[in-house]
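We emphasize that the prediction below concerns an isolated chain of 291 residues; any contacts that depend on oligomerization or on bound cofactors are therefore not represented. The input was used exactly as deposited, without trimming of termini.
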Amino acid sequence: MAVEIIDGNAVAKSVHEEIKSELAKMSAPRRPCVALVRVGEDPASVSYVRKKSRVAEEIGIESRLNILPEGTSQEELDALIDKLNADDSVDAILVQAPLPKPLDERHTFNRVRADKDVDGFSSANLGLLCQENPGAFVACTPAGILELLKRSKVETRGKRAVILGRSIIVGKPLALLLMKKGVDASVAVCHSKSENLKEICSSADILIAAVGKPGVVLADMVKDGACVIDVGINRVPSAEKKSGYKLVGDVDFDSVAPKCSKITPVPGGVGPMTVAMLMKNTFEAYKRHVR
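Result of the prediction step, given as a token string:
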């Protein structure tokens, strides 16, 4: 069986071009604007924010970077978010997670105005998603996964989808998305306390791994012909790389890929789609604000 490698970079590029094309047709007094908020100098966060800013500018979306030092208090972070909430020239606000302790992520996500919450992590947008309200901003990684499935022509209706991981960033919103009318998958969500994990995973037509541990999903956990989506981005030591590490997913790609009908690589799979859907959400927020 020939496996199809789902090219997230190519799909993301298509999304970028669609936004650029639609933006070019609009006559509005200003460009879309996303405010990126980073607290501290975590290397991964620095890299992610830099990439989001670069992609935004390539599309034609203004990005405003707000950097707060390590040790910023919750009150100081709240004040910045309140300022951005009140700024009519800002369409979207993204607070880069994880936040350094003792900052409260749940409180922070809920501080962002719902119509600017392009990350989709606030209780308001999660509630709208649960209600299947089309006005919900959906968390970018789950939205990107659904877009990959659609554009790769993966059948979801009536299929068994198993999600490894129950985070608010991926697992929970993805389960809601896959259950939506029109998507119609039968969804199981597994986690560290799940029993019979191998049996549950090997029953999946669509297996999504989002646990943040390298090589957790092995070949004996995957059904022949399944579609496997690997959300994990893990750094592991590598003498072959100049940086001293390489990026791998939660799936043991070499052993799993031969069993699949379709699979995403790491890097170049889900990652680019997360950024693409952030841009799509930002553009949608912009259209609502300039309408």
